[in-house]
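Reply to dn_fold:

You asked what the input looked like. This is it:
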Amino acid sequence: MEVLPGYPLSAILEAFWTTIQLTVYSGVGALVLGTVLAAMRLAPVPMLNWLGTTYVNVVRNTPLTLIILFCSFGLAQTMGITLVDPNSPTSIEDSNFRLAVLGLSVYTAAFVCETVRSGVNTVPLGQAEAARSLGLTFSQNLRLILLPQAFRAVIMPLGSVLIALTKNTTIAAAIGVAEAALLMKEMIENTAAILTVGSIFALGFVVLTLPTGLFFSWLGKRLAVAR
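and this is what came back:
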């Protein structure tokens, strides 16, 4: 079945599958790195606190396009860091994809960090003080008391970050990752059907993001911490 001449439905589905993969891999990476950054910003060690704060302020104020291009041209072409086996027949495509995941993870982690940190701030101070009085270290306090409650408090904001990440994956087209935005650009150039192509891909992103928002909204209400 061809949606437009020369472009079967399978090609569009494959492009959106790449978008989904970018979102999932980058989301996991951002969640891990963002949680570490949040711990650094909350740590009683001034150096860790400063490093976490500096990272968040620098990355949040840097355009995502610049970060993606740095991963491609700075890491891959200048420093030779490709994250793939150079002898692989798909090394270029794999390298572009993994570098895009790296860039998206690094960028999104700054927003995850602030979201998690705001969740930690919702935990009553008395709980942290009680944990310290029981002899728990900072890491134990964070792992057993603060983070479990913080994540439950910020499920919906984290969903918003994930939705923003899904839309930000379109930037990966700048380094040749074959996701939805790159195919859309190619289809517009070859068919000149701007409104048709735009409507198709707009609908595709709505299908990806709307259920995500509804799911995180339901999950946030279900797991909300009673105060």
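Residues 9-42 form the longest helix (34 residues).
Hope that clears it up.
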